[in-house]
Amino acid sequence: MLSYLGAAAQSYTNGDGSVLRSWTGKDAGTFRTLCAFLEAQGYTSYSSHAQNGSLFATYCRGAELFHIYYLADTGRLCAVTSDTAAATLPVPVPTGGSEPVTITQLCLPISSENVYSNGMGYVVRLSDGSFLIWDGGYPGQADQLWQTLVSQNGGEQGICIRAWVITHAHADHYSCLSAFAERYAGRVTLERFLVAPLNRADAADPFLHTSLPGIAARFEGAQVCVLHTGMRFSWCGLTLEVLLSPEELYINGGVADFNNSSVITRLSDGSDSILFLGDALHEVTDRLTALYGDTLRANQVQVAHHGVGDSDAAFYHSLGASTLWYPCGAQLYSWTVEFADNIARNGAVRRELAESGLYEILLHDATAYQRVWGSAEPAQPFDPGV
Question: Domain residues of the chain, as ranges?
Fold first, then answer.
């Protein structure tokens, strides 16, 4: 089907068997021609949009997925194909419900399993009372996550998780899921996992290949949806954008640090937005800046790699955020206490951001915090009742 484009300059096979192909020296006209060709072949549009000169579109025909994008900054045309992945795409949920949308950062105190004060777990309650989850943290957060859902749902009955995003396969991000599945899988409805599994040869941690299918099977009806750069999904008036999936880096021969396998997402509407950076290092944040420019901005930002990455303060200032969610505690955050080499790892950046006076900074060790979506009010402590 893609033969008229000539031989792809690069290709990469993802963990689910989908294949990303890339052609250089293309333009927006080639992208539009390919869209017209797919529509003539009976594919239907799932989503499409333009951003900072780049173009993105997802097409389906039965279970077949054809996701294409043109990257204006590099003149590359990319296509991801799968014979089965279209069946796993989320069904858009229309705007509805009157519940206030909230973002909750789980509390991850220092413990025997969390000796470095890191980890990551976020819960977004949508206007219809359903939930989106990012990561979760360690097994010790499973009960807290359950109680958070129960409290925000108003009881144990009818808890619906629209999507559970796993940013990458490091245990301080995904291992809460394993414990939660063992204890609570039969007590919630979980519609989809959203993941970006690497080729097995590149997976420093094999979790997304070996464990996730079995965990997903515990949740009746749950599907695993694989994410690609430029995909978009919608629930209750909020849009989840996949800004960068790791295949974009690995197609060029891999990267030195597995933290760069983090999938980058942004949740937004006309009133608010939050950028989730996972554990991305400067290779990823540099790529995001080059690709999206000023359109990368967000009101709220989850600071990358627990605030001990190597992205500079200028990157965070460029995002225009007023709230920085730090998935780390006071010891790891401090630039005055030598803890896990945190000063050398990014202490100067944390100090500049904190002393700028521009940001509400939220750490996760002393308490869970919750913000109301679209509100100018600061975050408030949240007690899940564990």
Answer: 3-88, 102-382
